[in-house]
Amino acid sequence: MGDTEIKEIPRLGSWFKLPNLLKMKNEGRLFFQELFNEQDGNVIKVELMESTIMVRDSIAAKYLFDPEYITKGCILGFAGVSYNHCMTKGRYPSIFCNGADHDEKKENSLKVFHQRFGEIKVADMNKIVQGGFESFNDLKEGDDFEVAVDKMAFHFNAFLVLGKVIPDHANYRDWFERCIRPDLKQKLLWPFLYKHDERVTEEVFRQVSETPTIKNLEKIAPNMTDTKEGSTLDLMFNTYFNGSPLLGKYAISCLARYVDSLTDEERQSLKAEADHFLEQDPSQYDESFEGLELINSFVLEVLRLNPVHITGTYGKARKDFVMESKTGRYQIYKDDLITDCVMEMHRDPSVFEEPSKVKLTRDNQKVKENLVNFGGPWLQESTSTNRKCPGQNMMYMGLKLFVIHLTRSTFDVKSDLTYTGKNPKRGYGTDIPVVMKKFAYNK
């Protein structure tokens, strides 16, 4: 077969949507893994909510990260879930926009992020994470540990972006969950939900408007092209989206992998590195933070093995084009729906030895070159014209701090930490919620 031959994309699974959707619901990652294993290629087509092209190698996935080829929409994945723009006063956040609308909104947010992230010290971030761990000491058996971690992640991100911890985590979380709803619920129940949704939105908007970042928005990011209200709404969404659903879930994955994927010797080595770091004067944290080799390796392995989403970037083809991949060339047509199967990409045996294991001896640079957790390749810079998450590096730092303080904790996990990826609703490193019998943080 010649290198120039264009292959037909194989259609796998049932030709009907419902059987595939049920399998995805019941088997999660394993369903897609089995489909890919049915043939030798890295590009397949599956009937889900729409006919969907899935890719599992870095060469094919690069098209998903280039706005020349892909246009985004407000649909989230394949489960008939979409963004409820009424929760942001009729606006869509930049992540759901395209073209000039996306570029302008993201550019305004980037101005804020660059200013805020440039000011923050590791010692400041450490105080937020340490405070979260100290609050875990107050948890009783039966309390929802994952909600407590979610709250810490939200406080961390609110401080980073807005310059202040927002105490009302429950109300903010309720607002965010109302932003993302099943289509059917929006269509059938919207008239009955409207008044409550409006009240929740106004309260969260008021809290965000009173933060230092928003109060000083014109000074922090001069020459904004959006209105102050518009920029506030975009930051309001991104503060939670980049914090709790991502940072919180990755933190739980770190805990699970720390317990079930490391030897006692490896845990002791991580603790020794963490202790040495915390014994320094906080003014030295910034200089030595990047040099935490074992903690860097562990967090990168968690990001590789436990991406929050089974699939990552998705969108529709802007035009006809030929997609290159490791297993050949495939014809893509305008309006084809495409996504990358992140979990499979991160376990590519041609890239990683023993790809399903946590190995602290991996080449971190090689791992980074193959991670695509945050809307694009890890080493890609976030710009106004691409889909790369601007908060990637700050989340990475937050997870490292989480692991540092985890090494100073003693705890007894009551629940099973097994992870198979079978439950697509569990964007965590466990199949079921993490339940603690006891938790003690030893400052």
TrEMBL record:
Domain of life: Eukaryota
Keywords: Heme, Iron, Metal-binding, Oxidoreductase
Gene Ontology BP annotations: retinoic acid catabolic process; sterol metabolic process
Organismal lineage: Eukaryota, Metazoa, Cnidaria, Hydrozoa, Hydroidolina
Residues bound to heme: 389
GO molecular function, one term: heme binding
Record carries keyword DNA damage: no
Family statement drawn from the similarity comment of this UniProt entry: Belongs to the cytochrome P450 family.
E.C. number: 1.14.19.41
Tagged with keyword Cytoplasm: no
One Pfam assignment: p450
Species for this entry: Clytia hemisphaerica
Reported cofactor(s): heme
InterPro entries the UniProt entry points to: Cyt_P450, Cyt_P450_E_grp-IV, Cyt_P450_sf
SUPFAM superfamilies: Cytochrome P450 (SSF48264)
Protein name from the UniProt record: sterol 22-desaturase
